[in-house]
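Structure (tokenized):
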């Protein structure tokens, strides 16, 4: 892979001037991804934070082929484009090499887009699906999704007298995608750019569907100072709440192991959405969340080579 200096000299396919929130990790993630290929790309973006903030009519922040579609069907849209591309190449009407990337948030991926994603994976389209996971429906008012962590305060899982935040553990979407037996699946973080760009390069060269789930800290939704986004992403990895691994042709591999696994508390205590968990009556939720992180990390280590 190119060095950081070499990557910095490449043309940015997501230009500045977009209207993402200050400190949002999503544009950092998109830039790292688009710098990871020298091939023409066609990008699809589901309705969500990334789409609405980079395509406010009559402007666009995208310097590549780009398609907006509904909240739930970016996988279907890009799989259709990929099919058309193969048909044109077969007829000799197109020679250029293209790659196809779909972007969706956790709401449009874990939840209402899961059926479209599963179908595209099963059909075997050569496309990369990126989930930028900010752990709630941030674009529409910070409602809980099936990616939202246990105990997190959102507008539809409000911490108060009735419930102490979200009552369920987050869905293991990366594991669900891996169960489709596609060529390449991974988890990544913008805090480790080399790991992320290496995974994107592998995914784009995979002979079939690929998927990367990337944690995307959100200052207004997680409630922390905007300059700490990369630190939030780093702590998610160091606590093993968000382990970095890949599944390549069915082989599981951990791509980063913390030298010293930090307690989950070091991540949660810096976010306002977990503030209520530090009240004595809610401390048991933190213990429950830590136990689940430990269980999933141990299971991943058993699976990985």
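Design, position by position:
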């Amino acid at each position: 892979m190119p060095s950081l200096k070499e990557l910095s000299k490449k043309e940015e396919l997501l230009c500045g001037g977009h209207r993402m929130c200050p400190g949002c990790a999503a544009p950092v993630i998109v830039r790292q991804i688009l710098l990871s290929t020298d091939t023409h790309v066609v990008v699809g973006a589901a309705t969500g934070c990334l789409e609405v903030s980079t395509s406010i009519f009559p402007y666009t922040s995208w310097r590549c082929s780009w398609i907006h579609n509904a909240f739930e069907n970016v996988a279907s849209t890009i799989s259709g484009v990929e099919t058309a591309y193969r048909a044109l190449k077969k007829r000799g009407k197109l020679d250029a090499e293209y790659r196809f990337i779909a972007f969706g948030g956790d709401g449009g991926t874990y939840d209402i887009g899961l059926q479209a994603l599963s179908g595209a994976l099963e059909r075997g389209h050569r496309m990369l699906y990126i989930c930028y996971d900010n752990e709630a429906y941030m674009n529409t008012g910070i409602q809980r999704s099936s990616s939202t962590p246990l105990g997190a305060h959102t507008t539809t899982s409000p911490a108060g007298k009735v419930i102490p935040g979200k009552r369920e553990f987050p869905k293991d979407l990366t594991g669900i995608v891996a169960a489709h037996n596609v060529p390449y699946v991974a988890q990544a973080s913008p805090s480790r750019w080399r790991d992320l760009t290496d995974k994107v390069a592998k995914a784009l060269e995979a002979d079939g569907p690929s998927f990367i789930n990337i944690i995307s800290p959100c200052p207004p939704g997680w409630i922390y100072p905007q300059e700490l986004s990369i630190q939030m992403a780093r702590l998610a990895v160091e606590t093993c709440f968000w382990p970095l691994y890949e599944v390549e042709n069915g082989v599981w591999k951990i791509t980063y192991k913390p030298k010293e696994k930090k307690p989950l508390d070091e991540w949660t205590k810096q976010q306002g959405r977990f503030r209520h968990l530090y009240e004595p009556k809610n401390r048991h939720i933190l213990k429950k969340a830590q136990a689940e992180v430990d269980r999933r990390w141990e299971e991943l280590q058993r699976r990985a080579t």
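Reviewer-requested clarification: The domain at 4-303 is CATH 3.40.50.970 (Rossmann fold). Strands lie at 40-46, 65-69, 98-105, 128-133, 184-188, 210-215, 244-248, 251-256.
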